[in-house]
Write a structure and sequence with these properties.
mainly alpha; single chain; two-stranded antiparallel sheet; 2 strands
């Protein structure tokens, strides 16, 4: 009998571990860590900038971790804080010119790695896999909160 728990958890952990390792390998030349890559990626997707709250949501990190990450990226000259909104939590985090260039490079690397990782999978199967993973994720989130499914 197949042990679904062991198979599911080991596959998810293995995938996550591989993604982290690839991020670290690919971003080593840029001197970036995984969470910094995530921030740059999402900021490069939103050229108008994002609030700290939006970055927290997209990166699925807490406020303190994102604050440290943004500070590090600011020190590297990759982001700046547009303070025209007046209130700190509404200020937009934006990529600098150097950050925009790096963001484009990161997007290209991600696209390339996803193509390689999806090799041998038909588009319809990939879409179905993502749909199923979304359902599993939502169900697990509800379970973790003690909610009924």
């Amino acid at each position: 009998m197949e042990n679904r728990y062991e198979k599911f958890t080991s596959l998810i952990v293995g995938i996550n571990r591989s993604i982290q390792k690839i991020k670290n390998q690919e971003m080593q030349e840029f001197g970036l860590k995984g969470n910094q890559v995530q921030c740059i990626y999402y900021l490069s997707q939103s050229l108008n900038g994002l609030t700290p709250f939006e970055v927290c949501q997209l990166c699925e990190e807490d406020k303190a971790a994102i604050s440290r990450t943004i500070k590090n990226l600011e020190e590297k000259g990759l982001v700046f804080i547009d303070q025209t909104q007046g209130k700190k939590y509404r200020n937009l985090i934006k990529l600098t010119e150097q950050g925009l260039i790096l963001g484009e490079q990161i997007q290209n690397i991600i696209k390339q790695k996803l193509e390689i990782a999806s090799k041998g999978i038909q588009e319809i199967d990939r879409k179905k896999l993502y749909e199923m993973l979304e359902i599993i994720n939502k169900n697990l989130e509800k379970l973790s909160k003690g909610e009924d499914i």
